[in-house]
From TrEMBL, chain A:
It is found in: Cell membrane. The chain crosses the membrane at residues 7-30, 61-79, 91-110, 131-155, 188-209, 221-249, 261-277. Belongs to the binding-protein-dependent transport system permease family. LivHM subfamily. CDD domains: TM_PBP1_LivH_like. This is Branched-chain amino acid ABC transporter permease. It is a multi-pass membrane protein. Keywords: Amino-acid transport, Cell membrane, Membrane, Transmembrane, Transmembrane helix, Transport.
UniProtKB/TrEMBL annotation, chain B:
Pfam families: Peripla_BP_6 (PF13458). This is ABC transporter substrate-binding protein. Belongs to the leucine-binding protein family. Residues 1-25 form the signal peptide. Residues 29-371 form the Leucine-binding protein domain. It comes from Rhodobacter flavimaris. Keywords: Amino-acid transport, Signal, Transport. SUPFAM superfamilies: Periplasmic binding protein-like I. PANTHER family: LEUCINE-SPECIFIC-BINDING PROTEIN (PTHR30483), PERIPLASMIC BINDING PROTEIN OF ABC TRANSPORTER FOR NATURAL AMINO ACIDS (PTHR30483:SF6). It comes from the Bacteria.
């Protein structure tokens, strides 16, 4: 029984990791940009939500819907004025720029919000849970997992059912040829980063509901997101979800054996998947 | 006659006399270096720095002490702390260093100052990690050496454990305790043979230790299951604030409802407790200074309540426990500088610090007392530690109420320990 409960709690945790990873996966899939500042941008989004909450006194869930367009515009500007300048044949400059962005973001947040550890106050719902048979499932973790599924589903629809998605895929496949078809890769990239930061805002909402955050907490979360993307296979969104779940479940089982092995078990699962399937679980066929 | 040789001779004489001047001067300004984590994750400890330095300079001037305070930021980084300590000693040529907050800040500074023979007054780090952490071989008590220039005042692990055990004794429970100890310096010390397990067993508490976990863990279901299975009615631990929030929210979700929760470190600052909202009500923690402490400042004559009030007015935020200790550091410094035969001489100043017997705003501070084990007695002075409980008020802010004072009966109780739920 304990093992089944461990599995369920691991899946719920995996939902959070999948949300962390979805934005990263999107950006990497389309423009081959490894965004080392992704964790810090999630923390930034958490502060944006917190700012809206404390300014207006509204519930964080409603504040997050207001933060979504703000973060989209921020992502768009970030890509247009910063990342697009360094994207090219050489993969090193964009990597260094995102690394610098990570440092700058952390210190700006520290300057404006101090090192106090903060949390998004959800009210009574925080401690509530539903009982399903032998399991007690927290409402917030359930909502996290549900949102992860919804986000991945929505992104997939966007990718495979819309003109914008076609442009995303085409740009990802061949950045030069796509320009012959009247698509500006730079504009496509800007929209993609905007969407990635909207997903990051959702991740921030659930991160802030689950634990405290402070300006320096971002990079610790980035690692799991990376692993989820790699386990799932580069460019596959459902794969990213699966990757998040694999890490979450591995951590939960590691902890059930001994809490010392919790984090390690997640990393071991990552290594194991790479050994068996070096390109991840669901790699896109043509990469 | 104006020749090259005459010119060189007179020039040399002039140079010699001007070099000799400062040494003859004697009453040079006393320079104090102050190192604390003003930015980074530990910066909550340093909220009172600016206020205390300004207050100290004002009072020192009025009392005829000619001092200058050079403030350095450790950026919450041990390497940076060592670097600024070296800068203070070589470039600024300070006569005394004050250092505060966590072993990550105090230890590198003390190690360098001890080697350079500059006196240090240090505080706000439990004395075991401070003293033992600076030893060449921490695992071999036989090799531990006292220091000549560095002096520390704070409480120790044994005081914190004692306060928690007495708090739990004061209420009716099944005496089963769940422990949440991370795999870091603090967690390992609490879980070790000098930590909680033997003390809890001696006091008749049954301990469930779920094992060391990594800091910044996102899921505590395994620990919660272990505590539920063992039917723990008491919870303790020394997690970092984000981890405690994760744990406690998950515990509520998964139906783990202990009667008493005593957490060290994570509940130190009101901000962390306010972040928990309703879930923060009646959690308990260690308490080393509050406005209710019945002590007065030797520097300004202010009571603890006055000091907290002035800080709140100047900083526009609620008092925190380190505020009293930041003030006490400057109290001890001023007292030692006044008593030292020659404050600019390292040995004389270290001697004056060692002879301190001062009633400060955090209690009496004096080195060489009986309440510290023999091996550390020369360098460690203990201050009182009591138990506190956070009470949520109507407006959502929290009060820290003293509920246990076995260690220092002169500190008045503000109430008795209340059970959760």
């Amino acid at each position: 029984m304990i093992w089944l409960d461990t599995l369920v709690q691991g899946v719920l945790l995996g939902g959070l990791y999948a949300l962390f990873a979805a934005g990263l996966s999107l950006v990497f899939g389309i423009m081959r940009l490894v965004n080392l500042a992704h964790g810090d941008l999630i923390v930034l989004a958490a502060y944006v939500i917190l700012g809206i909450c404390s300014a207006t006194g509204m519930n964080p869930f409603i504040a997050a819907t207001l933060a979504l367009p703000v973060m989209f515009v921020f992502g768009w500007l970030l890509q247009t004025h910063l990342f697009n300048r360094v994207l090219g044949e050489d993969i090193l400059p964009p990597l260094l720029v995102t690394f610098g962005l990570s440092v700058v973001t952390q210190n700006l947040l520290l300057e404006f919000f101090s090192a106090d550890s903060r949390k998004l106050a959800m009210g009574a719902v925080e401690a509530q849970s539903v009982t399903l048979g032998p399991f007690t499932l927290g409402l917030i973790p359930l909502a996290t997992l549900g949102s992860a599924f919804a986000v991945i589903f929505a992104l997939n629809q966007l990718f495979y059912r819309t003109a914008l998605g076609r442009a995303f895929r085409a740009t990802s496949d061949d950045r030069v040829t796509v320009q012959l078809m009247g698509i500006y890769p730079q504009k496509v990239f800007a929209i993609a980063t905007g969407i990635a930061l909207m997903v990051a805002t959702l991740a921030a909402l659930y991160l802030g509901a689950r634990a405290n955050f402070d300006p320096t907490i971002g990079p610790a979360r980035l690692l799991y997101a990376f692993e989820a993307v790699i386990i799932g296979g580069l460019g596959s969104l459902w794969g990213t979800l699966a990757g998040g779940l694999v890490i979450g479940v591995a951590q939960a089982f590691g902890a059930a054996i001994n809490p010392e092995w919790q984090i390690l078990a997640g990393h071991l699962a990552f290594v194991a998947v790479l050994l068996v399937r070096p390109r991840g679980l669901f790699p896109r066929a043509n990469d | 006659m104006f020749t090259r040789r005459n010119l060189l001779k007179s020039g040399a004489a002039l140079a010699a006399s001007s070099f000799a001047l400062p040494a003859l001067g004697g009453n040079a300004k006393i320079r104090i270096g102050y190192v604390s984590p003003q930015s980074g994750p530990l910066s909550a400890f340093s909220e009172a720095d600016n206020f205390m330095v300004a207050q100290f300079l004002e009072v020192a001037k009025a009392q005829g002490l000619d001092v200058e305070v050079i403030v350095k930021d450790s950026q919450s980084n041990p390497n940076r702390a060592a670097e600024v300590a070296r800068e203070l000693i070589t470039r600024d040529q300070v006569n005394l260093i004050l250092v505060a907050s966590t072993p990550e800040t105090t230890n590198p500074v003390c190690t360098i100052a001890e080697a350079e023979e500059i006196p240090v007054i240090s505080s706000v780090a439990p004395w075991q990690p401070w003293f033992i952490g600076q030893q060449g071989n921490p695992s071999d008590p036989g090799s531990w050496q006292p220091f000549d220039y560095v002096y520390h005042f704070f409480w120790g692990l044994e005081d914190n454990i004692g306060a928690f055990l007495r708090m739990w004794d004061s209420v009716q429970t099944n005496r089963k305790v769940g422990a949440l100890w991370p795999n870091d310096g603090d967690g390992n010390a609490w879980a070790s043979e000098v930590g909680m397990p033997p003390a809890a067993a001696a006091a008749g508490f049954e301990l469930t230790d779920a094992g060391r976990y990594q800091n910044l863990t996102d899921d505590f279901s395994a620990q919660i299951n272990a505590f539920k299975r063992a039917e723990c009615e008491i919870m303790t631990g020394i997690p970092i604030p984000p981890d405690f929030t994760t744990f406690w929210t998950q515990a509520m979700q998964q139906g783990f409802n202990p009667k008493v929760v005593s957490i060290a470190k994570a509940l130190l600052f009101p901000e962390s407790v306010v972040a928990l909202g309703d879930l923060g009500h009646n959690l308990s923690c260690e308490l080393y200074w509050s406005p209710a402490f019945p002590y007065k400042s030797s520097l300004t004559g202010d009571s603890s309540a006055d000091l907290a009030g002035k800080f709140q007015e100047a900083a526009k935020r609620q008092w925190t426990q380190p505020v009293g200790f930041t003030h006490a550091l400057f109290e001890v410094a001023a007292d030692a500088l006044k008593r030292a035969e020659d404050p600019t001489d390292g040995d004389a100043l270290a001697e004056a610090i060692a002879a301190t017997r001062l009633d400060t705003v955090v209690g009496n501070i004096g080195w060489g007392k009986e309440n510290v084990p023999e091996f550390a007695r020369r360098n460690v002075a203990k201050t009182p530690l009591v138990g506190g409980q956070w009470r949520r008020k109507e407006d959502g802010s929290f009060d820290l109420v003293i509920v246990e004072n076995g260690n220092a009966p002169e500190i008045p109780l503000g109430g008795t320990l209340e059970l959760l739920a």
